[in-house]
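Take just one protein record:
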Amino acid sequence: MGKQTVNIRNCSDCNMCCKLPEINYFEKNKKSHKWCENCEIGVGCKIYEKRPKGCRDFTCAYIENFTDLKPNKVGFIIFPQNEMSYVHKVLTVYCEEFKLQNFIKNIKKDWKMQKMVENKWAFHIRYNKDDDKLAIYDPNAFDDELIFVSRKEVQNGKRQNGVD
């Protein structure tokens, strides 16, 4: 079997990883859904050469070519939270709240994300600045809609409608 070429992209004008997820690599932690003070929006990181290891190591589904949905164009960023993401087939999404209404439509128009759905992957979407609410998109387990829960209920094993 021949070598496979992986098409790794660059960020160019996208800085959504500097806004949407929380960043705990600095002395002062950056909350989710707020711009990092080191980000020059639309340009890049002001401390790029000296950025923390966590920022250097971070990658998203767009950069890894798992999707053609560019985060700054769709208002959300998709990535595996940790190694258990691959075991449980769950991708983490940080989404701007006003872009949440278009999430399913965007996933459906991307053939790479549709393949993930067909392969039983689900999306856990964090969409508010307090990071306490979660939308779940898993058309294999639920209807083709977003299910809204609090993160505390998920941690306790309960859904918002009281179903365990």
About this structure: The chain has one domain: 16-156. The first strand starts at residue 39 and ends at 40. DSSP finds six helices and seven strands in the chain.
